[in-house]
Specification:
The chain is an alpha+beta fold. It is built from 19 helices and 36 strands. The strands form 7 sheets. Strands 17, 18, 20, 23, 25, 26, 28 and 29 form an 8-stranded mixed β-sheet that branches.
Length: about 800
């Protein structure tokens, strides 16, 4: 069946001329899934030289079909580069119309070939004419034969965009139309080159990862084996006459691969052409042997999603085709293909600026998982239009946000600053802008650096990670989303002693090609070629606890993940006996929720004794402030594994009824001051008298649990100060099992002394001294109280420091 349906004028010729018919106003777009994900295989065949009486069931044509059908990875596309027929001189004199019958014969063969390989000809067969398809015996001009080719193959001789195959195929007519004896010479007419450039400009945006392939019949590059002394083999008659002009246009269009036939000689060449300022582009030119005459050969070309091109030459020996060279050879490396498509991919990803060298350092803190982040951007310029600001987001599960400090390095008149877009935020995300004055512009280079603290950024235990993600992840990771252009991207992670990961994993992923709506390292498949490159640029220094990644031109539109395993919990560091004791303590704490159980009464007596101990303590009594023992609310939160959070198991709330009724709320580790103290494994303090520069007025809602705020009818009902302390088993640094919270609504409560910023301001030495004293008080007091609590619940704890 023919797909040619071009209209013709009264003389029987195509209405707009044959060449015009090959360049429609737009590129045809087709959808066809890859037979093997990640790679597209092109069967490049040429010079079939069918006649009207050719029997396709015999050699060599049946062997070609059989060899293609038996390939482990069957072709996705069939590209035919001319000389489909071998018309004799007999047709000149009109004795019989062998050309029409030959075209019919070869069309049937190619469509049968597509059917056998499960290829839809409408989206997987591309054909260009050769000199034999236009001229009798390839030499003598025949005014009817071009029309005969067009009638049968016009529907297959067209530009074709196949996004799913990552290909954009262009069919070019290289036959001369003059009525001369030109010995099979070829040229691509200037109007065709203009039309080709127009079509390339019409490729829809977002398809820069499609490999551009051009098909024509004649040689754009010489092949040594064809340069014989015979007059008919003279390159003047076989090469493309305007090869230089043709190749220049191919470079401008970003074509990666050119396929041709003509002289029945297989071969390939790679050429690098300069374009623009300091830029180069590589083009690979592949010639196919003849699939129907002399030594039969064809090409299998594999194009990966990353643009890497491999070539396998298949030759017929006897009745069977085999790989002539023993292995596929790379004719376009991934690095070359990556370099050629990089600018286009950056445009597709919406890149706004370019950084010649970018470096980021994470210094991770023990316990809290906080990280100091230092960044430096050198030789920064706009990628396209001027950039006055770019949007960014800061994410924090526990609502801790710090303002980064930016500093312009040069030029002297440059200003770079961080601006929060609003003072409102939700519990995980806050929007900001980095503002440039003057704006970033192209060819005006600047440099700047920044530093900030990211709170609760890393987890050290798998259980914490699961809690934070509601059971989704147990591994920790860094996610590098590349949106802009970085010539060199260097990332360094420095882990604290005792928390240095042993095994790191890496994944490079093309977000554009991912069917998953939520891009995660567990759900997304790696891009195999970029993944290999990523692995080569990863360095780990186990002794120093440092990881270094140095990526040259990470691809815009890609995400790079580094992830690592975590010990499940602190229990992994405990002896079997201590781990068992911690589990017993945890169970007994949770049993305190039973109103009629013995643990509730034990908790009530413990709270009473603890109040007396606190207010008798010399350091506490020596603090100034109002309020007696009954002005302070005390609550105990224990970790509940089933609910993945902290639940209030006991409380001493003198002004509530009943005074020992626990708060009714599950607090996720890391959220509110209670969850943050548990997550960070440290005592934490909040006072409304000291407003945080991070959050301002909205900090109260982030720090105080929602259940505590249920009874707040007036501003004076708010808690003025809160102190939370994590409890461990064994004491003092075993596994976290609970958090003890002290809270007061009295602005003059002695608890306010535990917020040192209120007293000493910027005096760093006094600040350190007060912090140290408070830490000593809390540790000594809580060690004693934790021992008493365990004793009240019947759990035998070893004394601190004993194994």
């Amino acid at each position: 069946m023919s797909n040619g349906n071009g209209s013709r004028n009264g003389n029987g010729a195509p209405a707009a001329g044959l060449r015009a018919s090959l360049f429609p106003g737009s590129i045809r777009c087709g959808e066809q899934a890859q037979k093997v994900p990640g790679r597209t295989v092109i069967a490049h065949i040429s010079d079939l030289h069918f006649r009207s009486g050719t029997d396709a069931s015999k050699l060599p044509w049946n062997a070609l079909l059989a060899d293609l059908a038996r390939q482990e990875v069957k072709p996705d596309v069939i590209a035919v580069t001319g000389d489909l027929v071998d018309s004799p001189f007999g047709g000149v004199f009109g004795f019989r119309d062998e050309a029409t019958a030959a075209f019919e014969n070869v069309c049937t063969y190619l469509e049968d070939l597509c059917r056998e390989l499960e290829i839809d000809p409408a989206t997987g067969l591309v054909v260009v004419p050769g000199n034999h398809d236009y001229r009798l015996s390839g030499i003598v001009r025949d005014r009817h034969q071009p029309r005969k080719f067009y009638d049968k193959f016009g529907g297959y001789c067209r530009p074709l965009l196949l996004p799913s195959l990552r290909l954009c195929l262009f069919a070019m007519d290289s036959n001369q139309m003059e009525r001369t004896l030109d010995l099979a010479a070829g040229t691509v007419e200037r109007n065709d080159l203009v039309n080709f450039g127009t079509l390339v400009g019409q490729v829809p945006g977002g398809h820069s990862d499609c490999t551009k392939v051009v098909l024509l019949h004649h040689h754009p590059m010489p092949i040594a084996s064809t340069e014989n002394s015979s007059r008919f083999d003279d390159p003047r008659y076989t090469l493309l006459k305007n090869a230089g002009q043709f190749m220049t246009n191919m470079v401008k269009a970003g074509v990666s691969l050119i396929l041709h036939g003509h002289q029945h000689a297989p071969g390939y060449s790679k050429a690098v052409f300069p374009y623009g300022r300091g830029k180069e582009h590589m083009i690979t030119v592949v010639a196919a042997g003849s699939s129907g005459r002399q030594v039969e050969e064809y090409n299998l070309i594999t194009v990966t999603d990353g643009g890497k091109i491999d070539l396998e030459r298949r030759s017929l020996r006897g009745n069977t085709y085999f790989d002539q060279e023993g292995d596929a050879r790379s004719v376009l490396s991934y690095d070359d293909a990556r370099r050629a498509s990089f600018e286009g991919l950056a445009g597709d990803a919406g890149a706004r600026f370019r950084v010649r060298k970018f470096s980021r350092l994470y210094l991770v803190h023990s316990g809290s998982g906080d990280a100091d982040i230092y960044e430096r951007s050198e030789q920064v310029e706009a990628f396209g239009d001027d950039v006055g600001a770019f949007q960014t987001f800061v994410e924090s599960k526990s609502g801790f946000f710090d303002r980064p400090e930016y500093k312009a390095l040069w030029p002297d008149n440059q200003e770079v600053k961080w601006v929060w877009k609003t003072e409102t935020y939700d519990s995980t995300l806050r929007e900001a802008q980095v503002v440039f004055k003057p704006s970033l512009s192209k060819n005006r280079l600047i440099a700047y650096e920044s530093q900030r603290k990211a709170y609760n950024l890393f987890h050290f235990y798998g259980r914490d990670r699961e809690d934070a993600t509601r059971g989704r992840w147990r591994q920790e990771f860094i996610e590098i989303i590349i949106q802009n252009v970085y010539d060199l991207f260097v990332l360094t992670l420095s882990f604290p002693e005792g928390h240095r990961p042993k095994n790191f994993y890496r994944l490079a992923h093309n977000r554009k090609r991912c069917p998953a709506a939520d891009h995660t390292f567990e759900e997304c498949a790696p891009d195999p070629l970029e993944q290999e490159r990523f692995d080569l640029h990863f360095s780990k220094f186990t002794e120093a606890g440092t990881v270094v990644i140095s990526l040259e031109k990470p691809v815009p539109g890609f995400t790079y993940w580094i992830y690592w395993d975590l010990p499940y919990e602190e229990e992994s560091k405990l002896s079997a006996h201590d781990a068992g004791t911690a589990r017993d303590f945890e169970r007994e704490l949770l049993r305190m929720r039973d109103p009629g159980g013995p643990q509730r009464e034990a908790a009530r007596r413990w709270f009473e004794e603890m109040r007396r101990d606190i207010f008798k303590a010399k350091m506490w009594s020596g603090l100034s402030g109002n309020g007696g023992p009954d002005e302070m609310d005390i609550s105990l939160y224990a970790y509940d594994r089933e609910q993945r959070g902290l639940v209030c198991v006991a409380a001493s709330l003198p002004r509530r009824t009943p005074p020992d009724q626990p708060w009714d709320e599950v607090i996720e580790p890391g959220t509110t001051i209670v969850g943050a103290s548990y997550r960070r494994q440290e005592a934490m303090l909040y006072s409304s008298a000291v407003r945080s520069p991070r959050l301002g007025e909205s900090e109260y809602g982030m720090r105080i649990p929602e259940s505590w705020r249920a009874d707040e009818a007036k501003p004076e009902d708010r808690y003025a100060v809160v102190c939370t302390v994590p409890l461990f088993c064994p004491i003092p640094d075993g596994r976290r099992i609970a958090v003890l919270a002290f809270a007061s609504k009295q602005p003059s409560s002695r608890l306010t002394h535990f917020v040192p910023q209120r007293r000493v301001g910027a005096d760093s030495d006094r600040l350190k001294a007060i912090k140290a004293a408070h830490k000593t008080l809390l540790e000594e007091l809580m060690v004693v109280q934790c021992m008493k609590l365990a004793d009240a619940l019947g759990v035998a704890l070893p004394a601190p420091g004993q194994a």
